[in-house]
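Hi F.,

I've been meaning to write this up properly since the lab meeting, where we talked about keeping a consistent format for the predictions we share between groups. The idea is simple: the sequence comes first, exactly as it goes in, then the structure tokens exactly as they come out, then a line or two of notes. No screenshots and no reformatting. I'm using this chain as the first example so we have something concrete to point to.
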Amino acid sequence: MRFVALIIGAFFLMVSSPTYGAGGSDYSQKKSKKLNLEVQIKERERILEDLIKQKNGTTDPETRRRVVGEMTAVHSAMLEAIQDYNKVSKDLEYRYPEKGDDSKRKYLPMRSRSLEQIEKEMGLDAVLSGAKERVDKKYAPIVEEAKKQEKRARGGVDPDIVEA
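Output, unedited:
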């Protein structure tokens, strides 16, 4: 559902763009398309991250199956957008090197990642965040005790509250 809304939004954005509507130069059309594709890719990555969180947060097999189907559709659309982005970037780099006096500009290609790689990265973030929370929770009393001992060693002055 979100995927369809994203495609429709991108289409309207592209059609309403002044370079497409006014019949702008080929360079400005490609530049606009590159920026549009970049926005689409970032949005699809965000949607994929949300879907991964949703998939990992549910135990219902039907919901997981539906979410995995959405993930697959969004991922394939993202891969197409990445290919288009890289193609347009190469065109801009080699066909119009003189435009805008940016002779040293480089367009970095976007990296295609598989769904497994994206899930792995999201999983690692979640594991590290969870480990940090567990460590903070477990060792909070020890840290508080150490602060109290430090306070007593300083003569009863709280290091967090300093009065003038």
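Notes:
The two ends are 60 Å apart (CA to CA).
Residues 18-23 have pLDDT under 50 and may be disordered.

If this format works for you, I'll send the rest the same way.

G.
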